[in-house]
Structure formats: C-alpha cells, structure tokens
Write a structure and sequence with these properties.
Keywords: Fatty acid biosynthesis, Fatty acid metabolism, Isomerase, Lipid biosynthesis, Lipid metabolism, Membrane, Prostaglandin biosynthesis, Prostaglandin metabolism, Transmembrane, Transmembrane helix
Protein name: Prostaglandin E synthase 2
GO biological process, one term: prostaglandin biosynthetic process
CATH architecture of the largest domain: Up-down Bundle
Low-confidence stretches: 1-54
CATH topology of the largest domain: Glutathione S-transferase Yfyf (Class Pi), Chain A, domain 2
InterPro entries: Glutathione-S-Trfase_C-like, Glutathione-S-Trfase_C_sf, Glutathione_S-Trfase, Glutathione_S-Trfase_N, PGES2, PGES2_C, Thioredoxin-like_sf
GO molecular function: prostaglandin-E synthase activity
Distance between the termini: 12 Å
Bound molecules: glutathione
Number of strands: 6
Largest sheet: 4 strands, mixed
Radius of gyration: 21 Å
Order of helices and strands: HHEHEEEHHEEHHHHHHHH
Number of helices: 13
Length: 371
C-alpha cells in the first residue's frame, strides 16, 4: 500500500514535469450537443499550458486517490490484468444501438483499444460469418479468434478477464454457455442465464466488490438496464411522427446506409417505428405518456444510488453505472433526452458519468504506470 502511494506521488511529479497529462477537467456538460467520447485526450499530450497541466494533474491525482481508496487497493488487488495484456478487439455494432453503446462505454472506461465495424442494419453482410445475428458481437483476436455475443456477456467476460489473475479469455467465455429457449410469444431465443455474474475467486471478489451486497446490487441494476430501461427508449424516441423522423435522421446519419437505402430508411423507418413504438408501449405496459415511465426509471435509479455516494459503485462507477449510462447515451441530442434531463433527477449523476468517462483513460494509463 505504502509503495503504491509513493508510486502515485512519483507518477504525479513526473506528469507535472513532462506536461504529459491530457486534460481531465470537463466543462459543465452541455446537453443538446453530441459528445464524442472516443479515446479522450489522445493526441493532445504535451500541448497544454503549464497551469492547465497542473490543474489536470491535480484532478488526476485526486481521481487516482479516490480510485485506489474505493478499490480497497492492496497488494493482492494490484495483480489484476493490465489493458495492454488484452488481445486485439473488434466490435461489430450499430452505433445507435443501446446494447452496443453499453459495450463501448465499458471498453472506453477501461481504456481497452478496439476496432469498430459498423454493420449495415439492412443486409448485415459484415456479420455474415456469424450464426448469431444480432449486434454487438466482440471478436477477441487471441491465438484463435474468440467470438463473444450479447452485450452483458461481453462485459462480464471482459471484466472477469481484467480482474482475474489465472483464467484466460477462452476459459472465461466457456462459463457463459448459450441456451436456446422460447420467449413469451413462443419464438426461439438465445439466452445466457448467468450473464450478470463475474467468474471470480474469493480474493478477486473481495478486491472487486468488498461486500456481497454491492455485488448483488450491481447485478440487479445491470439486469434492470437490459430488461426495463432499454425498453423505454423506442417508445420515447419514436413517440410522435416528428420525433420518429428526428431519430431516424440521426440513425441514418450515424449508421451505415447506402444513399437510397438511407433515404428510405429515414422516411419508411420513421413511419414504421412510430407504429412499432405504440406496439412496444402496449407490450411493456407503459403509460399513455411514455415520458412518465422514463422519468420514473431515472428517478428510481437515482434513488438506488442515494445521497451518500456519487455512483452506484461508490466513488467510481460499477458495471451498472456504465450500463445505465451506455443505454441512455444513445438518446443524447434527441428531444426525449432533453426532457429527461429537465424533468427527472438524473442530470447530476449523468454529468458525473460524463466527467468520469473523460478521465477514465488517463486514470487507467496512470494506474498501469503505477504497477
Ligand atoms: N441481448 C442482446 C440484444 C442485442 C440486440 O437486440 N441487438 C439488436 C440491435 S439494438 C439487433 O441486433 N437486432 C437484430 C437486427 O437488427 O436484425 C444484447 O444485450 O446484446
């Protein structure tokens, strides 16, 4: 522990001296303007003024202190895997899909580099190699390519891998077998029963969670993000013909569509989704004013965090924080998102999440240097 703090002080001094910290302070988030998260700060190294660097370094120092404290940092916990030990990753996605956004948030937060392959949602040629026909799909280019399906499986496998000292990716993935079952409409679906569970031994569990309750809480809210929060998105962003058109304008702009395809997708897609969203509203028993369900979900989430901690994970976000943020982020720039910010209690948490997502890559790089 003492050596960690000494290392931290050395690191901060080196960063100040070299001016090598990218900006970690974030201006007040401006909603209604799309924010590119990507690899925050890369390429801006060494170009900041001294005062700016010092401020950023201090922010990083504070963040590191919180991080180490919140992780109950100890010699045993330090043994977790470094991101540069992770194989090359390729994410097959639709940019605006909430499940894909969840995975990107997870990878960005942990500073794991990955290639993106944007899939054309009409032909889906890019995932022709796969029997599993949904996105996200993550390919880990290890000795043999390993395909991981389902956002929550991907996140659990990768998080287990980062925390685990002995298991390799193939072994961890084998603990998440797919199972065919039938949904309420009798349609065959693939499910992964234990997808919210990290495969950790006792020591790793202690490092990751501290208490049993925090592990159970994380699982509960990760499931909630998939089973409830996600289902509020479509009814809200396609609520009116005007909103449906704005949503499809965004989807076509951000997604991979041919010219004519894009034109049809925008107008036909918007009209279709306007009607589909009404069906989804009935299927999930939403209120007539679907915004009310969205606001309530946000307020339930904020209530679960409570007043004593900034994130559900404590001083740092846990997998549930990352999942909820990933899901909601796809609505940014749309009317539903602005309404959500002004009519629910979510905004302070959301701003903190944005800030932590900006800081996380620098934080994880700094932690690597500490080890
Ligand atoms: N449970 C899956 C759900 C993935 C999913 O439903 N993805 C949608 C896109 S948001 C999809 O690929 N649908 C099939 C299609 O577009 O044809 C996960 O968490 O990854």
């Amino acid at each position: 522990m003492a050596s960690s703090w000494a290392g931290l002080r050395r690191l901060v001094w080196r960063l100040v001296r070299e001016g090598s910290v990218s900006r970690v302070g974030l201006p007040e988030a401006s909603f209604g303007r799309r924010c590119a998260y990507g690899r925050a700060g890369k390429g801006s190294r060494g170009r900041q003024s001294f005062a700016f660097t010092l401020g950023g370094t201090f922010g990083l120092y504070q963040a590191l202190r919180f991080y180490l404290r919140s992780q109950g940092h100890s010699a045993e916990c330090e043994a977790s895997k470094l991101p540069d030990g992770v194989p090359q990753l390729t994410l097959y996605q639709y940019k605006t899909c909430p499940f894909c956004s969840k995975v990107r948030v997870f990878l960005d937060y942990h500073d794991l580099p990955y290639e993106i392959v944007e899939v054309n949602p009409v032909m889906r040629r890019e995932i022709k190699f796969s029997i599993y026909r949904k996105v996200p799909i993550l390919i880990a280019h290890a000795e043999e390519n390993l395909q991981l399906n389902d956002s929550s499986v991907i996140i659990s496998v990768m998080k287990t891998y980062l925390l685990s000292r002995r298991k390799n990716l193939e072994e961890i993935a084998s603990y998440y077998p797919s199972m065919k079952s039938r949904n309420e409409k009798g349609k065959e679906v693939i499910e992964y029963n234990n997808k919210y569970w990290l495969m950790l031994d006792e020591q790793e569990t202690k490092c990751a969670y501290g208490t049993k309750e925090s592990r159970a809480e994380e699982m509960k809210w990760r499931r909630w993000a998939d089973d409830w929060l996600v289902h509020l998105i479509s009814p809200n962003v396609y609520r009116t013909p005007r909103e449906a058109l704005a949503s499809f304008d965004y989807i076509v702009h951000e997604g991979k569509f041919g010219g004519v395809e894009g034109f049809f997708a925008k107008y036909v897609g918007a009209m279709a989704m306007f009607f589909v969203s009404k069906m989804l509203k009935r299927r999930h028993n939403l209120q007539d004013d679907v915004r009310q369900d969205l606001y309530k979900a946000a307020n339930d989430w904020v209530a679960a965090i409570g007043k004593k901690r900034p994130f559900l994970g404590g001083e740092q976000p846990n997998l549930a924080d990352l999942a909820v943020f990933g899901v909601l982020r796809v609505m940014e720039d749309l009317e539903a998102f602005d309404d959500l910010m002004s009519h629910s209690k979510l905004q302070p948490w959301y701003i903190k999440m944005r800030k932590v997502m900006q800081e996380a890559p620098a934080l994880h790089r700094a932690l690597q240097q500490l080890h």
